[in-house]
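FORM 12-B: Structure-to-Sequence Request
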């Protein structure tokens, strides 16, 4: 029985010759990365636990979330990382470099068959070159810095074949938005997706990056592209490492095999709030916008910049629209300069910033205000992710055309005169504060009052919003829990130590932030029961010794909000204390119990 591509990569980086889904293995990591977002907490973990670096030459900092240092807390955090890097001989890709995942490819630090982890939840971008990238929390990163490897549960694989010939004007962004429409936010949750088919074989690197980056929004561990000859040649030019590209065996076993015809794909737009809520762009045409954004790790390559320049050349951005353009890396920025693209952007009235993540994680460019409507080439439009306004996701071509028109449109339907409009503002919502609480001792069985939060796809921005990411003291995090989740903004005030949360599918999707776990610990929440968890979130919870369990159905418990529930982590038995009804779910794994009893990964 052959191996899938992810199994091949794991076999090459572990002691297992034939890894299978469900196996928990220590995996050697080729590139171990912390960003200015999460980096200071990695440093804190290293210092607090007196951990040494396994190999400084494979350890990196990337300052991409706030590459201008415009926020004082980010600037302070960056300096913490710089000092640690100087003390330990770590390479820093500072605020003049660009997005870390792209730099790993550009600088030859990652190549086909390699492994990498980062505090970036879009580290799966590296699947574009046939490498395995995984976003992880700061505890995981610190452990990997110390040991050179980290435990990993081998995921099941899906073989996705794209056949047919795409309609004219269908970009890689349109392809992935069509995939989001087909699979939603959690059908592929926990899977590795391997891409095949005549369409896939013809995709260039920047197109593969665009599709791979949004695997996170589909809940996938990663999207892996078997490396084409052009990709292999590109990577050989960039790296000094001798590598052998890896491919799945012909008799590899997949959990699912799915074939789609891209002739059915159309240009699409994600509506505000949910990346997977995509509709044909025609359904959103003429919606007035206030701003446009081109960039992010999904669509900031030189090819994206050229598409935008072709549309903007000889045109002007609509008078009451702000267009913000941010290349992925400094090399892309310089290429824009050398090719005359920056002049086209400036002549059109666009704002161009230095390379970086831009609007994500409260970055330097791309945030919008209350009531503002933005069309963005980014990968996420969760509430509050890119500001307090509404964000539509689309291809760079649609963003550029819309910025000129003043409303959402396509390049073939730009009006001769833009639409000019005024939009009333909205009063900002005042934030509340409560005193932080400490998590109680960790017993194997707990009893507590239930919060029924019957929602799927509660992402990390809803749990712990990015405007609080500069906070590094876990005790301060509890007060902000769920204050970006509609209907539960007062959760932190009303919760009590010992409470239990019962929720739906894909809880904790989105970012890799450890804070989305620590905030519950600070409030004294004892366990979260969900139908499924985001892959990074589940790891973060386990590593923090915060109990999480999955269930298929709790219907037989006849559970109501506010009732008391008893949960046994060792046996998986769950009892409704009010009526005595019980069920059994999968208990802690051996690894989870070991980490839990140890009080955390360290």
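FORM 12-B RESPONSE
SEQUENCE OUT:
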């Amino acid at each position: 029985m052959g191996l899938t591509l992810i199994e091949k990569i794991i076999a090459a980086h572990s002691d297992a010759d034939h890894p299978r889904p469900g196996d928990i293995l220590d995996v050697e990591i080729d590139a171990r990365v912390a960003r200015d977002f999460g980096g200071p907490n990695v440093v804190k973990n290293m210092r607090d636990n007196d951990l040494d670096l396994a190999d400084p030459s494979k350890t990196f900092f990337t300052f991409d979330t706030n590459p201008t240092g415009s926020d004082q807390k980010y600037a302070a955090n960056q300096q913490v990382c710089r000092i640690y890097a100087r003390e330990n001989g770590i390479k820093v890709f500072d605020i003049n470099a660009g997005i870390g995942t792209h730099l790993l490819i550009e600088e030859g630090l990652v190549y086909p068959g390699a492994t990498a982890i980062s505090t970036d939840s879009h580290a799966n971008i590296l699947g574009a070159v046939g490498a395995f990238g995984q976003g992880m929390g700061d505890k995981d990163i610190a452990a990997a810095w110390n040991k050179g490897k980290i435990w990993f549960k081998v995921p099941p694989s899906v073989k996705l074949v794209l056949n047919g010939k795409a309609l004219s004007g269908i970009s890689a962004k349109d392809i992935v938005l069509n995939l989001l429409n087909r699979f939603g936010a959690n059908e592929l949750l926990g899977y590795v997706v391997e891409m095949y088919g005549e369409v896939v074989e013809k995709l260039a690197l920047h197109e593969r990056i665009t599709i791979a980056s949004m695997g996170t929004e589909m809940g996938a561990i990663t999207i892996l592209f078997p490396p084409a000859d052009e990709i292999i040649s590109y990577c050989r030019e960039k790296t000094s490492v001798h590598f052998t590209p890896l491919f799945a065996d012909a008799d590899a076993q997949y959990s699912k095999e799915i074939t789609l015809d891209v002739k059915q794909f159309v240009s699409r737009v994600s509506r505000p709030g949910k990346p997977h809520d995509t509709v044909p762009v025609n359904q959103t045409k003429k919606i007035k916008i206030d701003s446009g954004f081109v960039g992010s790790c999904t669509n900031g390559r030189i090819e994206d910049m050229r598409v935008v320049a072709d549309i903007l050349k000889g045109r002007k951005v609509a008078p009451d629209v702000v267009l913000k353009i941010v290349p992925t890396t400094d090399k892309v920025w310089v290429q824009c300069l050398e090719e005359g693209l920056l002049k086209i952007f400036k002549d059109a009235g666009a704002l161009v910033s230095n390379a970086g993540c831009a609007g994500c994680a409260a970055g330097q460019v791309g945030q919008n205000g209350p009531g503002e409507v933005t069309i963005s080439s980014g990968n996420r439009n969760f509430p509050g992710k890119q500001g307090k306004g509404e964000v539509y996701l689309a291809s760079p071509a649609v963003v550029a055309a819309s910025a000129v028109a003043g409303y959402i449109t396509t390049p073939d339907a730009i009006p001769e005169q833009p639409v000019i409009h005024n939009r009333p503002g909205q009063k900002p919502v005042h934030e509340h504060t409560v005193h932080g609480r400490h998590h109680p001792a960790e017993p194997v069985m707990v009893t507590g009052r239930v919060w029924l939060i019957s929602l799927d796809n509660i992402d990390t921005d809803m749990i712990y919003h990015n405007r609080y990411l500069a906070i590094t003291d876990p005790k301060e995090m509890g007060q902000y829990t769920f204050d970006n989740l509609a209907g539960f903004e007062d959760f932190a005030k009303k919760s009590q130590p010992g409470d239990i949360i019962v929720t739906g599918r894909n809880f904790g999707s989105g970012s890799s932030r450890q804070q989305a776990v620590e905030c519950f610990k600070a409030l004294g929440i004892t366990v979260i029961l969900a139908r499924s968890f985001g892959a990074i979130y589940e790891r973060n919870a386990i590593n923090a010794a915060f109990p999480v369990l999955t269930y298929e159905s709790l219907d037989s418990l006849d559970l109501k909000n506010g009732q008391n529930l008893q949960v046994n982590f060792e046996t998986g038995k769950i009892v409704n204390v009010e009526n005595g009804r019980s069920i059994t779910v999968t208990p802690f794994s051996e690894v989870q119990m070991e980490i839990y009893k140890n009080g955390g990964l360290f």
